[in-house]
Amino acid sequence: MQATETAPETDVRTDEELIGIVVGGEVDCFEELIIRYQPRVFGMARKYFRNESDVEDVVQAIFTKTHQKLGSYKGTAPFEHWFMRLSVNTCYDALRRKRNRPEHTISDMLFEDESWQDRLGNIPSDDDHEGLEQARELVHTVLDQVSDRARIVLTLQELEGRSIREIAGITGWSESLVKVQAFRARKEMRAAVERFLIKEKRL
Amino acid sequence: MKPHDVNEYGQMKANETEQQFLKLAKSVQNDDRIPVGFAARVMARIREQHALETSSADERFLRFARNLSGNEHVPYAFEKRIMARLRELLTPDPLTVWSRMLWRAVAPCLGVMLLAVLFSAGEPADTSTGQAAGELETADFETVMLASFDDLEYTW
Question: Could you tell me the pLDDT band of residue A59, with boundaries at 50, 70 and 90?
Fold first, then answer.
């Protein structure tokens, strides 16, 4: 008798299968999609917002919007791309709404014990939670100085290492517009860094 | 001359020379001439230095931000919270349904109103009996409105 080896049956459904079920009326299956994508969405939202309640609000808005617009997902591109585009756009909208409410100033981020330039040389390890928190605060403070568009482009291009084409796909802007925005974003960021340097020299 | 006197004489001579030299040095005018374009040259150097400093800080900042590990921590049972919110959104609120129905009724109502206006405007107005009819309608209206009060009077 020949032993037949059957492949272990996996009940992991693909994104597209889940979407089909949810659109068909089974709302509960959407929870599986949330569980699948929430760590990434939280990681992304924390790049734009420092306040944890703002992060939670924006993540909730992303998933609510996803559920509402799920019917418009055509399935021509991977769900992940469609979802990331929606997520980034929701973050951008939330950033615009939150504008003119700076939480930290440059002076808050200047340290007595070392220059902030020196601090940039010391990337804290994953175990150093306090150091990581301070480092993230520093990044937020610099990025808070630039415009929302510049922040989106800087985060996608410089921090996440995405290409111009990918950014164009995510934001819905043309590639040439992304290039212009990227150039402006670098300029704005340089100006923000310069302000830090000047402020530090004055102190 | 004793050796001691020779030393004293030499010392005096040296002091005198030093004084003379200082006098001469003081009398020399300061040379305030500035080389052509000196300020511009210095400023260019300062700008260059500053640009280097800034661009290096700029690069360092980006490297720093890029290498920071992201925080993907998810609050406990967050998905439950979203699902509860979604179910809440999916459950129709009677007030919302009612207001939606009212809004939907706006267009047909406006249409009916417009038709009624057009219909009444199209009818020829009867000017001869208009005033009398108007008076009659007013009297009828008053009777109807005060009918309940008239009934009250009878009970007294």
Answer: very high
The CATH code of the domain at A103-203 is 1.10.10.10
Could you state, in order of their start, the residue ranges of all structural domains in chain A?
A: 12-101, 103-203
Distance from the Cα of A157 to chain B's closest Cα (Å) equals: 10
User: What integer pLDDT is reported at residue B128 of this predicted model?
Assistant: 56
Mutation pick from A42, A49, A187, A195 vs chain B, by most beta carbons of B within 10 Å, is A42
Q: Is the pTM above the cut of 0.80?
A: no
Among A39, A38, A148, A76, which Cα is nearest to B72's? A39
SS3 B90: helix
DSSP-derived secondary structure for A81-132? HHHHHHHHHHHHHHHHHHTT-----TGGG--SSS-HHHHHH-PPPTT-HHHH
Quick: pLDDT tens for B59-111.
888 888 888 888 888 999 899 999 998 888 888 778 888 898 999 999 999 99
Q: What is the interface pTM, i.e. ipTM, of the complex?
A: 0.78
Query: B70 near A135, Cβ under 8 Å?
Result: no
> Which of B60, B75, B89 is closest, CB to CB, to A117?
B60
One-letter amino acid of A203: L
Closest partner residue to A190 (CB to CB) among B58, B66, B74 is B58
Q: Does the pLDDT at position B6 exceed 80? A: no
Min Cα–Cα distance to chain A from B38, Å: 25
Does the domain formed by A12-101 have CATH 1.10.1740.10? yes
A25 in reach of chain B (CB within 8 A): no
What's residue B66's pLDDT?
85
Tokens of A19: 């979407």
Residue A77 contacts B where some CB pair is shorter than 8 Å: no
Residues 117-146 of B with CB under 8 A from A: none
Q: Does A46 touch chain B (CB under 8 A)?
A: yes
Q: Alpha-carbon distance A189 to A186, whole Å?
A: 5
